Amino acid sequence: MDVEKAIQTVVQTFKTSAGQDGLINKQEFCKLLRTHLRHYLTGTGYKQSEEEFWKKVMTNNPNGKMNFNNYLEFVHILVSRVRETVGGHQLQGAH
Length: 95
Fold this sequence. Notes:
The chain is mainly alpha-helical.
């Protein structure tokens, strides 16, 4: 049940953060970080700036807007950092 709620939250956060075109521009992304993830990011010890996050996720996206797949890549980065800070355990099957 918790995993289902987490997935719903990921999808809903993207939908509410995206513009009318269904994509997230840089300004919307920075707002998402500040409003939804400020304390969470601090708690992980992963203190990259908004600009660094944007560049990391958007490297292969020349249109300058984040689609849902880009957003999932960003979520993957965060989850990987959390995994590293929680005991440093490598999850079986994780890359």
